[in-house]
Amino acid sequence: MGVKASVAKLAVLTLPIAVSAMVISVATAQTAPPSNVIQRQDGMKAMANSAKTINAMFKDTSPYDANAFKAAAETVRAHSGAALSALFEGLVTTQGSKASANIETERQQFDKLANDLGIYASALSAVADRNPHALGPETRMQGGEAMGGGPLARKVDAARDVASMPAEHAFHMMLQTCTSCHVKFRIEAK
Fold it and tell me: Half-sphere exposure of residue 113, counting CA atoms within 13 Å on the CB side?
């Protein structure tokens, strides 16, 4: 068998494999979520993991490590505010996304929550700088301290109030911000 015949036979044998790979590639491209959705999901996972890290230190189920605490707070800060809002520009309801169309219609509220998240995370980052060895009593919530009040209480304003609250309270407000955003702007799987 000559070289041309060998090449032709090889091409005939590998053609079905190449076509199969191309079909799989096209099918995957059609079902894969857009890159901004993947970035959103990766950012949300990073923030959730960071919140778990901080929570474990506040609950004393993990030893306090100022560097890890700061890194976790900075991760949340980096994925919040304008960075988070930018990932939800334009049409937010798309394949692979759990984002609600409410983001588009209530953009100002979504952006405020994204900004508040960054404010609380920045405050927690600063706490790590001020507390290199331990989370002191001044960083902890005191018994009976309100976390945001009831329906008649003054509403918490992150920018105004974060400096006057203990770090643990800021952490709880950060979690409450995440929860508020998910309740309002995330579609739950049925």
Answer: 18
**SS3 per residue for 106-138:** CHHHHHHHHHHHHHHHHHHHHHHHHCCCCCCHH
- List the chain domain ranges: 37-142+151-185
Write down the pLDDT at residue 176.
96
- Domain covering 37-142+151-185 in this structure, CATH number: 1.20.120.10
pLDDT at residue 190 in the model: 60
pTM: 0.79
